[in-house]
């Protein structure tokens, strides 16, 4: 063991005191959710995100332009501002704010002082409006205009950022003893799980790396000379070095993917949970067994039945906005919808429509990149859904009309962190060399079926029309 690198979810910030201790780890704030890490999926800062967008459009410098031109409630500044406004105690006690992926390496190094803490280029660039062209974070004037509560906070944050191939320190004596390691072990800069997952999944030029799980994160890399001054609108940012150092990382994603299937499965489980569980003539062990086996088999049985539904009979259309829309063009206030139901619309047909909706949402992302001049030749998929559901992945290949390679690694994000750590320690000279030496390759590939792909083109147009209608109604 020569090096450790860490990835976490993000944007997942927390308020810290002068020593860099999260407020939730102090007795006074132990039970206060506002003092805890705010997970990426939290959407409570919708109003703050809207205000950031409105101010940016009218400011002399649009600080959202490298973030796709639309700031999201899932990101750093919106979450920070929301808590500062809603909790006086946290506001008064907070000295700084730290991303989870930056705090863990600092803990391992043994120095969480916010002034010394090394911040991730990945987190700062994609979620905190950091860019070298701005000289770092947005100006003090912009932040104070957004809300005077932000006055002075920038001085307690950061200006410099670190890519995943950079060292932030050595393992502290405390953690060396806990882990049974040497203090000569070096610690690398943190990054987000999806971005290091793309590294672990062996991302390459012109291939979109798609982490397919509860949600998705869709990433591409491009040489700086190819991107130039091009700004891709409506995505989650383009950041030099956020995935591979020396390359521009472009990020997009869907706010819900596997979570939509889980929602439908949970809904279908209602009779088991609420009716069968109350049948007194069944003993508790039998009820538990029915619940367990039904829950475990639900998605697999739905997939098997849905795969037998003739494509030409698909009358049901759904929207994948059940957790809002991340990209293209973030709008977390949007809601999901289902249309085209008949008395013959059974559970497999509705499930198939939901799977198709998630695939159409993926195609919207691909189309945005391609329309902005970013080339995509194929997909590299990783994550739970990619590994577990051939049914979903084949529909995704057909809808995208692109080949999909599935990374062999069961833990691509951890593997990406290990690759980064190997470069930090000097085991490999750079990330591509680490990918070549440590990559697990691909264990399956899905090719689009030309006939189904052609049919899905018309279904996709129906999906877009439905989306325009629903979005118009929600306004």
Features:
475 residues, alpha/beta, Nucleotidyltransferase, domain 5, 2 domains, 7-stranded mixed beta sheet, 3-stranded mixed beta sheet, globular
Q: Terminal Cα separation, in Å?
A: 55 Å
Number of continuous helical runs: 18
Give me the secondary-structure category. alpha/beta
CATH topology of the largest domain: Nucleotidyltransferase, domain 5
Roughly what fraction of the amino acids lie in strands?
A: 5-15%
Shape: globular
What does the model show?
This protein is of the alpha/beta class. It has two domains: 7-162, ATPase, nucleotide binding domain (Nucleotidyltransferase, domain 5); 202-408 and 441-475, ATPase, nucleotide binding domain (Nucleotidyltransferase, domain 5, 2-Layer Sandwich), CATH 3.30.420. It is built from 18 helices and 16 strands. The protein has a seven-stranded mixed sheet. Strands 1-6-5 form a three-stranded mixed sheet, with helices on both faces. Strands 2-7 form a two-stranded parallel sheet. A hairpin with a 6-residue loop joins strand 10 and strand 11 (247-254). The protein starts with a strand and ends with a helix.
Q: Nutshell version of this structure?
A:
The chain is built from 18 helices and 16 strands. With about 475 residues, the protein is an alpha/beta fold.
Give the topology.
Layout: E1 3-4, E2 7-8, E3 13-16, H1 46-58, H2 76-86, H3 88-93, E4 96-99, H4 100-109, H5 121-127, H6 140-146, E5 167-170, H7 173-179, E6 186-188, E7 191-192, H8 193-200, E8 207-212, E9 216-223, H9 224-227, E10 238-240, E11 247-254, H10 258-268, H11 270-274, H12 284-306, E12 317-319, E13 337-339, H13 347-371, E14 378-382, H14 384-388, H15 390-400, E15 404-407, H16 412-424, H17 431-438, E16 442-446, H18 450-474
Parallel strand pairs: 1-6, 2-7, 8-14, 14-15
Antiparallel strand pairs: 3-4, 5-6, 8-9, 9-11, 10-11, 12-13, 15-16
Helix pairs in contact: 1-2, 8-16, 10-13, 12-13, 13-15, 15-18, 16-17
């Amino acid at each position: 063991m020569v090096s450790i690198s860490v990835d976490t979810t993000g944007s997942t910030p927390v308020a810290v005191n002068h020593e860099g201790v999260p407020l939730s780890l102090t007795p006074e704030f132990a039970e206060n959710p506002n003092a805890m890490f705010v997970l990426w999926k939290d959407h409570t800062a919708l109003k703050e995100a809207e205000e950031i967008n409105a101010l940016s459009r009218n400011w002399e410098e649009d600080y959202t332009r490298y973030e796709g031109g639309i700031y999201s409630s899932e990101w750093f500044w919106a979450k920070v501002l929301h808590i500062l406004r809603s909790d006086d105690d946290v506001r008064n006690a907070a000295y700084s704010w730290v991303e989870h992926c930056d705090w863990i390496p600092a803990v391992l190094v043994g120095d969480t002082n916010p002034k010394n803490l090394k911040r991730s280029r990945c987190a700062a660039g994609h979620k905190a409006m950091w860019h070298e062209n701005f000289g770092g974070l947005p100006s003090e004037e912009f932040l104070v205009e957004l809300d005077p509560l932000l006055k002075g906070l920038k001085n307690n944050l950061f200006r410099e950022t670190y890519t995943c191939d950079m060292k932030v320190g050595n393992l502290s004596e405390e953690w060396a003893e806990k882990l049974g390691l040497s203090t000569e072990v070096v610690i690398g800069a943190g990054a987000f799980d999806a971005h290091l997952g793309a590294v672990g999944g062996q991302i390459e030029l012109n291939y979109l790396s798609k982490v397919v799980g509860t949600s998705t994160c869709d990433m591409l890399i491009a040489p700086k000379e190819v991107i130039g001054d091009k700004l891709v609108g409506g995505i989650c940012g383009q950041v030099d070095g956020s995935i591979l150092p020396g390359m521009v990382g472009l990020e997009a994603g869907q706010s819900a993917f596997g979570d939509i299937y889980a929602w439908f499965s949970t809904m279908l489980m209602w009779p088991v949970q609420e009716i069968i569980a109350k049948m007194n003539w069944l003993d508790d062990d039998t009820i538990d067994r029915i619940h367990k086996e039904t829950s475990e088999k639900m998605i697999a049985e739905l997939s098997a039945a849905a795969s037998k539904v003739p494509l030409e009979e698909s009358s049901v259309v759904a929207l994948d906005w059940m957790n809002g829309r991340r990209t293209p063009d973030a709008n977390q206030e949007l809601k999901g919808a289902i249309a085209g139901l008949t008395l013959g619309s059974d559970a497999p047909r509705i499930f198939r429509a939901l799977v198709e909706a998630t695939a159409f949402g993926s195609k919207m992302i691909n189309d945005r990149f391609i329309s902005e001049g970013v080339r995509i030749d194929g997909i590299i998929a990783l994550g739970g859904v990619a590994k577990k559901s051939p049914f979903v992945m084949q529909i995704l290949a057909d809808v995208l009309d692109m080949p999909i390679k599935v990374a062999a690694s069961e833990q691509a994000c951890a593997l990406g962190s290990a690759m980064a750590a190997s470069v930090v320690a000097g085991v490999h000279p750079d990330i591509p060399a680490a990918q070549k030496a440590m990559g697990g390759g691909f264990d399956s590939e899905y090719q689009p079926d030309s006939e189904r792909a052609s049919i899905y083109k018309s279904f996709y147009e129906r999906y877009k029309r439905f989306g325009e209608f629903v979005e118009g109604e929600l306004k």
